[in-house]
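Weekly puzzle thread! Below is a chain. First person to post its structure in token form gets bragging rights.
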Amino acid sequence: MRIVLAYTFPRLDIEVSKKMNHLLKTPFCVHPKTGKVCVPLDPDQAMDFDPDTVPTVGGLLNELNTLQLSSEDRKGEQWRHTSLGPIMQRFQQGFLKSLSAACKKEMDDAGKVAALAANPQTW
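Winning reply:
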């Protein structure tokens, strides 16, 4: 029984627990050693995620250097034409859009409460 517990009991790595560079990363930050870009995951597709396929800084630079863009495309959104484009689109639609809607609803609700408080005759 002790052997089974020794191999199955979760163990914490002291270096991971105490150093800042081992903590969770924010989306689109870059790993200092590998150059891999931290990408957000779709929870429904987490089992299909392969960390070896995420974009790297070097790969993104190569993609940007080889792009043949019109002058209209060169106005700051070249990333849309790289391997980061679909990831960013998924992040915007899957996270930012719902976050924005939730914030808007919360602000609307707060505005209604403030309006009621300012005009007690409407109660």
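Puzzle host: Confirmed. Bonus trivia for everyone else. DSSP finds four helices and no strands in the chain.
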